[in-house]
Structures are given as structure tokens and as C-alpha cells.
Amino acid sequence: MIDIGGNLGVLMTAILTAHPRLRGVVFDLPHVAPQAARRLAEHGLAERCQVISGDARQQVPAGADCYLLKMVLCDFGDLDATAMLHAVRHAITNDGSLVIIDKLRRPPRRDDATLLRTTMSALNLLVMTGSLERSQTEYQQLLHATGFTLADTKRTDALDGELYLLHARPA
Description:
The protein is an alpha/beta fold.
């Protein structure tokens, strides 16, 4: 499994701890990689997890069974998100999986506090960084344009139900 934009390796640490036979890679920018390597070593996972630095908009490591993007694509506009997904599509095997964990933008309703929080977060991202939270339809379009098919979408319990898991496969 490769965690693209894996930051300090917190999620990968939890995954590898829960699945002792799994091997992983944390992939992030060069200034983050040393901190991730230290964290993984502190948790006794350095033998099972490699840390690689680079820019996911250009290239990602090839050959993994699963690529993970947790709360990464929301930080980028469509141009950069498309570049990342093209890089993953180039690296992934035809029977591999892409897992995206992110918020999904849905039409707001006054009686849904979680949905209103997500809407405000989306507005904040757009105003402050030019990035955006996407709807399921927008993810489907983005995935289709980069050679993937959205296989499944599940709401998680994380962040009071704000996070969704989108499972995609190479088309």
C-alpha cells in the first residue's frame, strides 16, 4: 500500500499495526519524509514501510496493490488533482485499487449540522486556497477522465460522518 501525501505516517502506522503482514510506503514531499521515517522507526515499522519523497503531481512509486489518498485531493484544484490521478493511473497495476478518503460536498440542509460543517469547510478551502471539496459526481468525472472507475462510495464514522471512502479501479 502506498499512502500518497502520507505526511507523518500516522495513518500508515495504524494500518501496518492492524495488519502485520502488510508492507507500505509513505510518499510525500521531501521536507516531510524525514519526519515520517522517524515516526515509523519509533513504532518499529521501518522494516515494513519505506518512506519516499517526491511530488505526486509528477510521479508516484509503481507496483503497489493499493494507492491511498486521504484528504489530499481536496487541497488541490482540478488541474493538480488530475495530474496526481494520472500519476497514480500510470503507476497502478490493472488489478490495483485506489482508495480516496475525503469529504463529499452535498447540497446543504438546515437541519444537518454535519452537512453544514462540510459546506463551510468547502467554502473555506475555495476562498483560502482555491482548492475544493468535490461532490460524488465531480469525483466520478475526475476519476473517469484519469482512467479510473468509481466502484463504491461509503460514508465513514470519522469526523461525525463527514469523511467518505471512495474505492476506484483502473478502467
